[in-house]
């Protein structure tokens, strides 16, 4: 999918919020660049429970096998979701690109200070947004949270407006879209 003059939704979510993206895909008629965060804890808890009573001689081999299986399950879930969007027959869905960001280190005691005291560092929203933004395939992007659903004609309306009013096409102009329920 290549739409240089189009608008790409740039969004991010964790694996557990992936179902929210389907509604967005059903409404949007352009490209969507989605970054998904794969948490280390999803595998870590599984491994801790599995290896607690295992003979030390077998741990590396068994852990590697089960880690591979769990990773395969996660990827299968993502691929199944993507196939449903790209090849589903429920209408003209968006073109969906998925990018993965893996957590490589997690220290549950990691905190930063702000005016109200320590704040736990947890979800890398900026890194995810920047990853999705890096792979947007159009000149225009629409930064959107995973749980927001654009109106079904928004893509066409904004493109039409940009074509009719070329003075709006400037790197110094941003549009703010209000959200409502």
From TrEMBL:
Residues in the signal sequence: none
UniProt GO molecular function: glucuronosyltransferase activity; xylosyltransferase activity
Major site of localization recorded for this protein: membrane
Pfam family, one: Glyco_transf_49
Topology within the bilayer: Single-pass type II membrane protein
Transmembrane regions: none
InterPro entries cross-referenced by the UniProt entry: Nucleotide-diphossugar_trans, Xyl/GlcA_transferase
Subcellular locations according to the entry: Membrane
GO cellular component terms listed in the entry, alphabetical order: membrane
Protein name as catalogued: N-acetyllactosaminide beta-1,3-N-acetylglucosaminyltransferase
Gene3D superfamilies per UniProt: Spore Coat Polysaccharide Biosynthesis Protein SpsA, Chain A
GO BP term, pick one: protein O-linked glycosylation via mannose
Record organism: Reticulomyxa filosa
Statement: the UniProt record of this protein carries the keyword DNA damage: no
Protein keywords: Glycoprotein, Glycosyltransferase, Membrane, Signal-anchor, Transferase, Transmembrane, Transmembrane helix
């Amino acid at each position: 999918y290549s739409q240089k003059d189009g608008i790409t939704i740039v969004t991010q979510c964790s694996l557990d919020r992936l179902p929210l993206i389907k509604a967005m895909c059903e409404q949007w008629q352009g490209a969507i660049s989605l970054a998904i965060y794969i948490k280390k804890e999803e595998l870590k808890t599984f491994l801790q429970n599995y290896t607690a009573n295992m003979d030390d001689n077998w741990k590396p081999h068994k852990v590697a096998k089960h880690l591979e299986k769990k990773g395969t399950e996660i990827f299968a879930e993502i691929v199944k979701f993507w196939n449903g969007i790209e090849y589903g027959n429920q209408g003209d869905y968006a073109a969906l690109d998925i990018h993965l960001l893996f957590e490589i280190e997690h220290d549950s005691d990691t905190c930063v200070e702000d005016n109200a005291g320590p704040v736990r560092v947890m979800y890398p929203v900026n890194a995810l947004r920047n990853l999705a933004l890096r792979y947007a395939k159009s000149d225009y992007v629409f930064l959107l949270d995973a749980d927001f659903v654009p109106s079904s004609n928004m893509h066409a309306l904004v493109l039409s407006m940009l074509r009719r009013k070329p003075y709006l096409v400037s790197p110094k102009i941003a549009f703010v879209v209000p959200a409502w329920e």
